[in-house]
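As agreed, record minuted below.
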Amino acid sequence: MKRVYGLMINSGDADEMLWDHGVWETEEAANEYIVNEMSTISGVWVGEIQVNDGIPEAADYAEEEMVECALCGIEYNPEDVNTDDYDEAVCINCEPGYKENMNIA
């Protein structure tokens, strides 16, 4: 389990986290955010949150090579370009029109 800290408010029935403001690794950093960014708002405090951290270290995302669509010339993630079914790379946006033109020819 990993401990992080978030901003909390009391909504009347229960304490709720302000998810859209993020989380911090230390309580001090979260308190500093309240002082610097939310000093005019009352009723906000730092609460501890325990999360099940399935990845022990920060996730390492490999930068994927972008693939250019042969029809529109826009670069896409490889998942958004069909390179298996056609002779050229066709993006998901151009594919319906490409299929239609293939049937006419």
